[in-house]
Design brief:
With 342 residues, the protein is mostly beta strands. The chain is 1% helix and 35% strand.
């Protein structure tokens, strides 16, 4: 096989001087089963890809899963008579790339049996691995809609794809958006988007609007990093006296990445930076980990307490033939707490 994709996600929030922050996650019962060994009540198979709804080749839960052979642009399509999504938050399922992996897929919701243009790209599927997927209905444009009629998971390269598998498909009542941690007088660098004043200077391949997975909010930064490339945040020169650390959440996927974080002072990279311990594979039950790095650790002793710019960088050195996803989460800036140069 060709490349093994080491997919990960880095929640590069980066609220400087962040507080501890508990997150509130509201849940309610009565999630709606779309597929649980069989199609859920009133769900129909409208797929135009070739699907086997009772495959036992790869099973995540129970006794069966859906095997999908998708030619160009073909899709696994779950259809339901129109219903109101006002009480629902997320679409969740597990997906497996089969022995080959590498599939690129796209999820589209339908209202009144009309597909919406606001679809969501899935992370590239991994070989021989089940991946959990959570997509806010809002990301599909079908939240709080009176006429939701289902969704499809579509081949998105225009070419035949190796067989992939889908299981445990739900529409959940969970509140879709997990609020970000409080800033605690810190400053947001990324919170669903690059915060005001912060620019994306990355030279790694990044998607700052990746919708799955996320740690909080609706988006994170997905990073595919080649050797020595980086996710980079840039800000015009500012005083760092009021800040103590850089904080972000990271989802390393299969792990193995070695990342280095460096600051810039007046455009000069501060060596040697701070190298994080090698990332371990994400724990499926808690895939996001909070990382906090003191600003002093990214700074040279001579300049440690002077006013200046503090772009942070995550230098991703992927494992051989690996790729990295870097995602950020936290929250939109509480602008009143953003210190400006004095
Ligand atoms: Ca199953």
């Amino acid at each position: 096989m060709s490349r093994t994709h080491v997919v990960s996600t880095l929640s590069c929030l980066a609220a400087l001087l962040a507080g501890a922050g508990l997150r509130d996650v509201a849940h309610a019962g009565n999630d709606l089963a779309v597929y649980d060994d069989v199609l859920g009540s009133a769900w129909e198979n409208w797929s135009w890809a070739q699907v086997d709804l009772a495959s036992t080749t790869q099973v995540h839960g129970g006794s069966a899963a859906i095997a999908v052979n998708a030619g160009a642009w073909a899709a696994l399509y779950f259809r339901h008579v129109a219903f109101d999504t006002g009480d629902y938050g997320n679409l969740t399922f597990w997906i497996h790339g089969g022995s080959a992996g590498g599939q690129r897929l796209h999820v589209v919701g339908t209202l009144g049996d009309t597909p919406l243009s606001s679809g969501v790209d899935l992370p590239v599927l991994l070989a021989n691995t089940w991946q959990p997927i959570t997509i806010p209905l809002a990301s599909l444009g079908v939240d709080h809609a009176a006429n939701f009629t289902g969704f499809w998971i579509q081949e998105w390269t225009g070419a035949d794809q190796p067989t992939f598998y889908v299981d445990d498909v739900m529409v959940t009542r969970s509140v879709a958006v997990i609020p970000p941690p409080p800033l605690d007088h810190g400053m947001a660098l990324y919170d669903d988007r690059f915060a005001e004043g912060w620019d994306n200077w990355s030279w790694a391949q990044v998607n700052p609007a990746s919708t799955t997975p996320v740690n909080s909010g609706t988006s994170a930064i997905a990073v595919r990093a080649g050797a020595f490339t980086a996710l980079a945040f840039h800000h015009t020169a500012m005083d760092t006296h009021k800040f103590a650390s850089i904080t972000f959440w990271i989802n390393p996927g299969n792990g193995g990445q070695i990342l280095n974080l460096r600051g810039l002072l007046s455009g000069v990279i501060i060596e040697p930076g701070f190298t994080l311990p090698p990332l371990a594979a994400a724990d499926p039950s808690a895939p996001w980990t909070q990382i906090t790095v003191p600003l002093s650790a990214t700074d040279s002793p001579q300049s440690s307490s002077r006013a200046l710019p503090i772009p942070s960088r995550c230098n991703n050195e992927p494992t051989p033939s690996g790729t990295t996803n870097c995602v950020s989460s936290p929250r939109a800036a509480n602008r009143r707490s953003v210190p400006k140069s004095r």
